[in-house]
Write a structure and sequence with these properties.
12 helices
């Protein structure tokens, strides 16, 4: 096997050299690491697209990782852009061996659920991004992760999820060769810009959801509390995706002078940083708005419950008044019934039965008892 030319030692990082200077590869050979080229993994289904570029123009579209490695070695001042979706461990190990990727970065790229961050390992940048898209049907946010390796002459993207659409990013860059000519850092800018632009529909969708929630709150929808809580959780995730980007982009801007970043790219990155800051502020505002809406909803629910309790109390009071009236009249009517029942037993030894005034006395006794009970209940406002 022919010896592999020294690529990385002769060609400093694009972030350090600036896009204007593209020194040729050092033709001096050296023994390859491990004595053999990294073997391509058995399955390449996760390799979405691989392409080689020179002076901002695609010069090759290799069909495999091994072919990409070989053609990149043969291309002086070329750049490889390899896109992968949920790659296997074998593919990542092959890429790590070929491009000298740091083991810690490779370990992070194997798994999703990483926080957004930017780390530098020698001449290679490792960037973790959280992309987002708004799903209209379920009215929720779908988050995905994107890991990007940016080296002197390569860009590797490892996608965990559907967003963002990197094929559109590639088409955009290929349609503007003057931008793609600036090198790997220009590709990183385009990816950052695509991720940040993808936040705009999410922000619009969330704003529409909040407007609907406000309407539901004042309409008294009983399910609105659940929707507020679910949207608040999504805003926490959205904050975790956007807030670290502000510091990451400011870190990149702080290194403009140190790494000789092209002035045009500096302007582009500042524009992306402005959009990220605006989005982060909007997300913070959404969380505050949802907190206030939840407070208002709790107040309205409490007021509604108080009104219901008051209505129940009033109904109970009215029912109690009716019971008192019925009980009063029942007691009044019970007195003559009791007297009549006693004298209606017709026992032989009842003295009042033979008394000439027995009947008037019984009638008078009934009247006195009824009038007395009526006056007592009236005084107590039972009647």
């Amino acid at each position: 096997m022919p010896q592999r030319p020294i690529r990385r030692a002769a060609r400093p990082s694009a972030w350090r050299r600036g896009p204007s200077a593209v020194p040729p590869r050092d033709p001096r050979p050296e023994p390859e690491r491990g004595g053999a080229a990294p073997a391509e993994p058995a399955g390449i289904a996760s390799v979405v697209e691989a392409a080689l570029y020179r002076d901002g123009v695609r010069v090759s579209s290799p069909g495999s990782l091994a072919e990409t490695y070989r053609e990149l070695r043969e291309q002086p001042a070329g750049m490889a852009w390899i896109g992968l979706a949920r790659p296997t461990e074998g593919e990542l190990q092959s890429l790590a061996a070929e491009f000298d990727l740091h083991p810690l970065a490779v370990e992070d790229a194997k798994e999703a659920h990483q926080r957004p961050k930017l780390e530098r390992y020698g001449d290679t940048l490792f960037v973790v991004l959280r992309a987002a898209r708004y799903l209209d049907a379920p009215e929720e946010i779908d988050f995905a992760e994107l890991h990007v390796f940016v080296g002197p002459d390569f860009v590797l993207t490892v996608r965990h999820g559907a967003a963002p659409d990197l094929s559109a990013v590639r088409r955009r860059m290929e349609e503007t060769p003057e931008l793609l000519r600036l090198g790997p850092e220009a590709v990183l800018y385009a990816i950052l810009d695509a991720v940040v632009d993808g936040y705009a529909p999410v922000v619009a969708g969330v704003q529409n959801d909040i407007d609907e929630i406000e309407t539901e709150v004042f309409r008294g929808d009983p399910e609105v509390s659940r929707r507020i809580y679910e949207l608040s959780r999504e805003m926490v995730e959205f904050q975790r995706a956007t807030r670290p980007l502000v510091g990451m982009l400011h870190g990149l801007m702080a290194g403009f002078s140190k790494y000789g970043t092209d002035e045009e790219l500096q302007r582009y990155l500042r524009d992306v940083a402005d959009h990220v800051t605006h989005t982060s502020e909007r997300v913070d505002g959404f969380r505050q708005a949802l907190t206030e809406i939840l407070t208002v909803n709790a107040t309205l629910v409490t007021q509604q419950q108080n009104a219901e309790m008051r209505a129940l109390a009033e109904a109970g009071f009215e029912q109690n008044e009716e019971i008192k009236r019925i009980s009063s009249w029942a007691a009044i009517l019970f007195a003559p019934t009791l007297v009549g029942t006693i004298y209606g037993m017709n026992f032989r030894d009842m003295p009042e039965l033979d008394w000439p005034l027995g009947y008037p006395f019984a009638i008078g006794l009934m009247g006195v008892i009824c009038v007395s009970l009526y006056l007592i209940f009236k005084r107590r406002d039972w009647l």
